[in-house]
Each structure stands twice: as C-alpha cells, then as structure tokens.
C-alpha cells in the first residue's frame, strides 16, 4: 500500500480507487492510515509550490537527471541553460560567454535568474548559477536545492569528450581542475541535500537517489531514536507519539530508563561507489558527507553542519590531514588520533560536539554538562566547550569528574590548566567506574534533576561517550583511515582490513563497528585491553563477570575500566534490538555483578570481534622495541594495541592500529620504557627530556603550552559519595548561573 502512494502523480489515482483504499485502511488500521496519508502528502508536496533544484558542476548530469525526476513526478522540467538563459539572450551560452567575458557573464546570468520564477517543477541549474548570491537566494526561496556531488576526477573524465566553451572561468592558465575546485565553495553554501554520484552510476539511479533524498529531507520522522532498553513490542501509543530526534538525544544524553540512545532505523549504508567517491576527498569533506547522512537537516541544516565541522577540524589540529595514517612496520599502520589540541582521540568528538550541543539546545534554559573521565576526556571536553562563543558560555557550563589518583600527572595538569570560567575539574577519591556510575545515577534521579530545573532553570546533559553525538565523529576517522590506505595504493577498495583499538569504554570500538555496518570493509575489530581485561574475557567466553574484580592501576589509564558503557549499544544491535534482553542483562550486571550471553549472540559477537590483553611489562617492552627499530615512540595505550595485534592478527591483510593518544601525556612511563634511570617529577621537565630524543612524532605543541600555563593551578577534590557529588553540582550551578 505504501508503494502505491510513493511518488505517483495525484492524477494517476482515481477518486473511486483512492476513496476505497483510504476507507479500508482507515477502518482496519487507523494509526497506519494516518502515517501513510502523512507520508503520501509529504512525497507530493513538491507538486504544489516547491521546486526540486538540481545543482552541481558541469558534467554532473543535472539535465538528464532532472528529466527523469520530472517524469517520475509528472511535473514540469526546466533547464536553466536551455530554457531560460538561451531563450532570454537569444543566443547560445557559449556565444554569450565569448561576447561578454567571465565576470559580465556571471552578472547577466544572475539577472536572468532573478527574473525567473516557477513552482512545482524540477529545475536544473547551470554549473555557474551558484556563484551569483542574489540569484541563488531568489531561487532557493521556493525550492529544495539538491547538490549532485560528483568526484572531480569523474567530471574531468566526462568533460574530455565535450566542448569546453560553456564552462565559465576556464581560460589559458586556469585548468579545469582549478575551476571545479574553486566552485565547490559555492555549491557547499547553497545546498539543502547532497547526493553522491559515482563514475559509473546510471542517471536513472541518480534520479532515484534524488527522490529518496528529498523524501528524507521532508520527513524527519524517518530518523528517530529509541533507548537500548525499550522493547518495541511493549511500547505504548503514548511512547510511539513522543518521538525523539537527534537534537533531543544530544541534549538529553541518557535515556530516562537508564538505557543509551540509538537510531531506531539504524545507520545509513553507503554504496561502494559512494565510498570510492570520497577517496580523493579531504578529511573535512569526508566528515561532512558522513555526518550529513547521520544527522537529519531538520536538526542541523547541511550548511550549518559544514560550518561546525570546518571550525572543529580547522586550525585546532596541528596536522593538515587531521587523522593521518602512518606505516609502522610490515602490515601494520598507525591511525594517528592525537593531533588535536589536547593530544588524544577524544578531540575528534569534543571539538565538534560543543557546537552541535549549543545549536540544538533551546535558548530558554541553562545547561550543566556532567562528564566522567579516565583521563583524556577531561581536558578534551574542557578545551572544546571553552572554544564556544561567549554568548553560549553564559548558558552552558561543564564539570568533569575524574579519579583523583587514577590519571597521569600530565593528564591531571592538563585538566587543571583547561579550566575556564564555565568549566571545572573535580577529582574524586575513587576510580573511573564510580565516576561513570555516579553520573548515570544522577541522570536517572528525577527528584534531583527536577529540583535543578525548577529551582535554578538548569537542565543536566552528558558529553561522555554515552552521548550519541560523541560516537559519530569517531565513525568518520575509522572510515577515513581505510580510504587513506586506498588512496595511498596500499589496498584496492573492497580489500579487507583489521582494526586494533585499545579499549576501555567500548566507544571507539563501537564506532569502528558502525563504520563496518555503513560499508567500510573491516574484517575483524581487535579489542586490546590491559590487565583490566574483563572485555577480553567477555569476548572470548560470553561471560561478563565483575565478581571479585578490582580495578588495577596501569600505565594505560584510559582503559582502566571494568564497566564498558557502550557495550550496551552493541549488544542491543546484535540482539535484534531487543530492549527487554538488554535490560535483563544490565540489571543482572548491576545487581549480581555478572551476566552471560546466549550462544547464538556470542557467535554473532565473535564474527566481529577478537580480543587480547597486555601486561604493563609487555607494554613498556613494546615501546622500547618500536623506538629502537623505527625511531617512533608509541604511547602506552597504542603499545597495548600493538602487542595484542602482534599476537592475534594473522598478517593476511593490513591492520590499522588506533594510536589514541600522544606519548607526551604519559611521560614517566615512556621515560621508563626508554630506560631512563632518573626521572624528574616535574611534568614540564619530563617533556623537555623527551624532546631531546628528536623522536617521531615530535613533542605535542598543545601539551607544552597547557603545562606552561598551569603553574600552581588548583582544583576541587571530593569524596566518593553521591550526596557530596550532588552538592558540588548544585553549588556550581548557583555560582555560575545565579
């Protein structure tokens, strides 16, 4: 029934047949009737006043695609070049360009666009229309702009056999590639929807993509979120009507039932051709394309999202490639994730998320963000939120809780140094698991959260990896790493790779699994633990057992974790989204300290994951060995992954090792690994000593600057008591917002 309504022109459905179908459906399934009727009108609203406006470079196939889309919708098709410009000028476009020159042509073209109006049509723009701001503002008012994004290499191949006289800006000394690259900035400014078009994709397929993309644009209800602990079969009509969208889950963080948010319909999957179209793209361009598919434009428009991404990954990262892939040895490659301002992979999410958060939250309320950190998240989230505009800082504050004696001296110095007027660090006399569990309990304490809202007009939010928005940027760098290996000629697209990740809270690992689901050819994800190896045991046996386990302090503190929060999302995924099962498992873990997967679920898990662990002794030995043979210094977490990859990977395909932090953050352990006898306890002195080695990579610029500023900075310390933590939170709200 749904497909009868989809995209068919109104006049093809007779009054009698329409009435009959509607009556039967309305009587038998009133809710379904309402949903389908709404969907039908959504699909046909373009036949009213709105236009579909196709935009893209010359050779993108706008004219051919426009004709097919028009036929499918049974609506007028207008080609700006042929039907507007040449009719207005009474001469061909190439003749006009030759007569008046580049600049005058753009002005004349813009004037013609300003006089043009249409409704309910499919309009194919010229390749240069987007370069005239007033003309584009005029035509965009009554339409949805669809950008046919074709790789530059494909466009150049197509245009070799065509006349070039119609391409504005092409002249002696200016190559076609230069023209196409220059125009991208204008296309990015105006589009509402991007449609990726590969080299061999038929126009019919592109037209279907356009229609699908327009339908998605019109119907944000296609992209709602549910809790991992929500049972589909047990949901009430009230729950079904109270839908949650991306902007809701960014601000809410944790579901009210204690579960984690996941997209109800899963993540989008890219075709092989779409991924291959991103091989030549920059990191920022890849991030824009991937995140546009994960965030509905009703939540954040494409143009705003592009602005946020460029801000996040621009000058804040010291490497122009943002997340470069470096060959280490043999079949092993390092994905360097430490070029951000605070020297860890957390910067990828936490340079981006503050801007997403600030855009999504309502202006009528203040927000306090709670973060638990095992080290790296603290400084990253403090730095990220400190870069917000002052107007946003006035309504958004942040507090990080970290184990006072469970982070490295440099990590602690970083967190102290990154404190700002709206962001504070609080040391807790316990471990990370307590900090994380405490935050979860605070979020689900409706009496406390309600009191803060009523008394202080302040809502709580989370920026840990339990927040869905934290995971999306991590998907990007796993996908980008694979595309970089293809670009470097190490593999051809479609060849498998393994990924090895030092794993604590399972967020980074989950992001790699999501990249695999979206079409990146990842064979196995290798989970690397230190002596807190509960995840290794779980992946091998299906038994998650915390009974009798005590957290062990190690040289890789970011993975000193026993309760891996994001594992819940993965179990929800492989458990056929059975919220009842997830609730049962994690209630049992909370109450009894263990749970066991069913055999079939363990089989699914082991298709994706293998796991191993590494002792501190082996970690330091790996750092020494790699430095001795390559001159490269691994941090302690990357060394854990290197040891596990050596043991588990079969060398039949490349393995990408996630280098999650810069070695400078763990200077005492690194100096010990390099067999330095006497180690000065001053963090700054330790970094200066490391810099004398002239190793790769060099000492991290951001760390040095932060430590120089820290001086004798101070921070609050509190007991491992829920009431004490809640008292701290209330005091911080009073001091900042009142």
Largest sheet: spatial strand order: 8-9-19-14-15-18
Mean pLDDT: 89
| Outline | globular
Give me the number of helical elements.
Answer: 35
Architecture per CATH nomenclature, i.e. the level-2 architecture of the largest domain: 3-Layer(aba) Sandwich
Q: Which strand-content bin applies to the residues?
A: 5-15%
What is the CA-based Rg, rounded? 28 Å
CATH secondary-structure class of the largest domain: Alpha Beta
Characterize the main sheet: 6 strands, mixed
Question: Total strand count, please?
Answer: 20
CA-to-CA gap between the ends?
56 Å
> What is the name of the CATH topology of the largest domain?
Rossmann fold
Q: Which ranges are low-confidence, i.e. pLDDT below 50, for 5 or more consecutive residues?
A: 1-44
- As a percent range, the share of helical residues equals 40-55%
Structural class: alpha/beta
Structural domain count:
2
Description of the molecule:
With 738 residues, the protein is of the alpha/beta class. It has two domains: 51-218, Rossmann fold; 224-231 and 241-737, Rossmann fold. Helices cover 49% and strands 13% of the residues. It is built from 35 helices and 20 strands. The protein has a six-stranded mixed sheet, with helices on both faces. A five-stranded parallel sheet has the order 2-3-1-4-5, sandwiched between helices. It is globular and about 85 Å long. The protein starts with a helix and ends with a helix.
Which secondary structure elements does this structure contain, and how are they paired or packed?
Elements: H1 2-5, H2 15-28, H3 30-44, E1 51-55, H4 62-73, E2 77-79, H5 80-89, H6 93-100, H7 102-114, E3 122-124, H8 133-140, E4 143-149, H9 152-159, H10 176-190, E5 193-196, H11 203-218, E6 225-227, H12 237-241, H13 246-252, E7 261-263, H14 272-276, H15 283-294, H16 302-312, E8 325-329, E9 332-336, H17 346-350, H18 353-360, E10 366-372, H19 376-386, H20 390-393, E11 396-403, H21 409-417, E12 423-428, H22 432-443, H23 446-456, E13 458-462, H24 468-487, E14 497-502, H25 507-517, E15 522-529, H26 534-541, E16 543-545, H27 567-574, H28 579-592, E17 594-596, H29 599-608, E18 609-613, H30 616-630, H31 636-648, E19 655-659, H32 667-673, H33 683-691, H34 701-710, E20 716-718, H35 722-737
Parallel strand pairs: 1-3, 1-4, 2-3, 4-5, 9-19, 10-11, 10-13, 11-12, 12-20, 14-15, 14-19, 15-18
Antiparallel strand pairs: 6-7, 8-9, 16-17
């Amino acid at each position: 029934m749904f497909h009868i309504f989809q995209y068919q022109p109104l006049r093809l459905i007779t009054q009698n047949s329409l009435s009959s179908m509607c009556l039967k459906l309305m009587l038998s399934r009133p809710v379904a009737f309402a949903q389908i009727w709404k969907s039908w009108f959504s699909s046909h609203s373009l036949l009213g006043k709105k236009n579909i406006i196709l935009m893209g470079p010359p050779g993108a196939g706008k004219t051919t695609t426009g004709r097919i889309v028009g036929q499918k919708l049974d609506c007028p098709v207008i080609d700006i070049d042929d039907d507007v410009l040449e009719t207005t000028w009474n001469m061909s476009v190439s003749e006009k360009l030759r007569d008046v020159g580049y600049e005058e042509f753009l002005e004349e073209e813009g004037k013609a666009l300003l006089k043009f109006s249409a409704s309910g049509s499919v309009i194919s723009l010229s390749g240069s229309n987007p370069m005239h701001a007033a003309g584009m503002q005029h035509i965009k008012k009554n339409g949805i702009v669809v950008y046919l994004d074709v790789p530059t290499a494909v466009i150049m191949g197509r245009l070799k056999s065509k006349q070039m006289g119609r391409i504005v800006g092409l002249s002696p000394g200016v190559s076609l590639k230069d023209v196409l690259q220059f125009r991208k900035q204008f296309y990015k400014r105006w589009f509402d929807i991007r449609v990726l078009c590969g080299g061999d994709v038929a126009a019919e397929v592109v037209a279907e993509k356009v229609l699908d993309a327009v339908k998605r644009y019109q119907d944000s209800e296609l992209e709602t979120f549910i809790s991992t602990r929500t049972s589909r079969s047990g949901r009430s009509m009230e729950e079904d009507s109270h839908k949650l969208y991306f902007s809701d889950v960014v601000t809410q963080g944790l579901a009210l039932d204690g579960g984690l948010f996941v997209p109800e319909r899963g993540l989008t999957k890219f075709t092989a051709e779409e991924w291959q179209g991103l091989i030549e793209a920059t990191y920022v361009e890849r991030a824009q394309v991937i995140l546009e598919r994960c965030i509905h434009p009703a939540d954040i428009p494409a143009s705003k999202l592009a602005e946020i991404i460029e801000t996040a990954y621009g000058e804040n990262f010291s490497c122009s490639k943002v997340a470069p892939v470096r060959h280490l040895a043999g079949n092993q490659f390092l994905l360097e994730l430490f070029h951000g301002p605070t020297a860890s992979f957390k910067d990828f999410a936490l340079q981006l998320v503050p801007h997403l958060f600030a855009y999504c939250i309502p202006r009528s309320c203040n927000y306090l963000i709670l973060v638990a950190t095992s080290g790296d998240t603290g400084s990253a989230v403090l730095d990220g939120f400190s870069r917000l505009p002052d107007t946003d800082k006035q309504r958004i504050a942040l507090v990080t809780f970290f184990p006072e004696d469970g982070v490295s001296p440099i990590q602690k110095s970083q967190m102290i140094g990154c404190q700002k007027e709206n962001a504070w660090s609080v040391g807790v006399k316990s471990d990370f698991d307590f900090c994380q569990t405490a935050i979860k309990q605070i979020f689900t304490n409706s009496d406390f959260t309600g009191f803060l809202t009523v008394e202080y007009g302040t809502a709580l939010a989370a920026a840990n990896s339990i927040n869905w928005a934290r995971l999306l940027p991590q998907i990007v760098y796993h996908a980008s790493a694979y595309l970089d290996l293809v670009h470097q000629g190490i593999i051809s697209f479609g060849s498998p790779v393994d990924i090895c990740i030092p794993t604590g809270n399972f967020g980074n690992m989950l992001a790699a699994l999501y990249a695999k689901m979206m079409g990146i050819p990842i064979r196995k994800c290798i989970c690397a633990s230190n002596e807190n190896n509960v995840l290794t045991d779980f992946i091998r046996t299906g038994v998650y057992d915390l009974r009798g386990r005590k957290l062990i302090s190690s040289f890789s503190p970011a993975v000193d974790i026993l309760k891996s929060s994001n594992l819940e999302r993965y179990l929800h995924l492989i458990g056929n989204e059975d919220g009842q099962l997830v609730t049962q498992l994690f209630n049992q873990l909370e109450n009894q300290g263990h749970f066991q997967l069913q055999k079939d679920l363990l089989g699914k898990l082991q298709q994706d994951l293998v796991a191993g662990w590494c002792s501190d002794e082996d970690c330091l030995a790996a750092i020494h060995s790699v430095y001795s043979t390559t001159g490269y210094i691994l941090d302690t977490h990357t060394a854990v992954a290197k040891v596990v990859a050596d043991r588990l990977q079969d060398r039949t395909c490349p393995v990408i090792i996630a280098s999650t932090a810069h070695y400078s953050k763990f200077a005492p352990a690194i100096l010990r690994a390099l067999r330095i006898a006497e180690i000065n306890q001053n963090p700054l002195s330790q970094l200066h000593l490391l810099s004398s080695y002239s190793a790769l990579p060099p000492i991290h610029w951001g760390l040095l600057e932060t430590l120089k500023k820290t001086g004798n900075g101070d921070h609050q310390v509190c007991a491992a008591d829920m009431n004490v933590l809640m008292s701290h939170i209330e005091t911080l709200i009073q001091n900042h917002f009142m």
